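---------- Forwarded message ----------

FYI, see the GNAT family N-acetyltransferase record below. Original note from H. follows.
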Amino acid sequence: MNDLLTDRLAVHPLTAGEAERVVAADRGPDTAWAPDYPAEGERTGARMFLKACAAVGDPHPFGGYEIRLRAGGLAIGGIGFHGPPDAEGAVEIGYGLAESARGHGYAAEALRAVVEHARSLGVRHVRGNTTHDNVPSQRVMLAAGLVQVRTDEELVHYELTLS
């Protein structure tokens, strides 16, 4: 599977080996990572990806991706699906960026690329959520076209209908 390319980013489908290095925070000799990558959120996402690999084999195209800068290939975050589409044709997404990469619009740019990829795969709805106090993540989802659909005691829920 090829990288999803945007103007500034390459959203790279993780391999099991890459995910194992992210979980171990072991960049290896041929890997370019931001100094504060991976954060715990990216390590959690890589663990989820590895669990999916163990259960079903490679879960792509509905697996985990690494967010890399196109110029230089520096890994700055992670994004991915929490599994294949459900009975309603909906997928849930999650993402995170290294602290040093925040505030440049990279998360929204990567999320837009993943949303368009989901659209090309026939997904009907993209869903995401975040805590009430995570205003930057709320802004990312809004910037990528998701709309707030509900709140509960813990989370703010967003969705984008694709078809």
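H. also flagged this: The CA atoms of residues 74 and 143 lie 23 Å apart.
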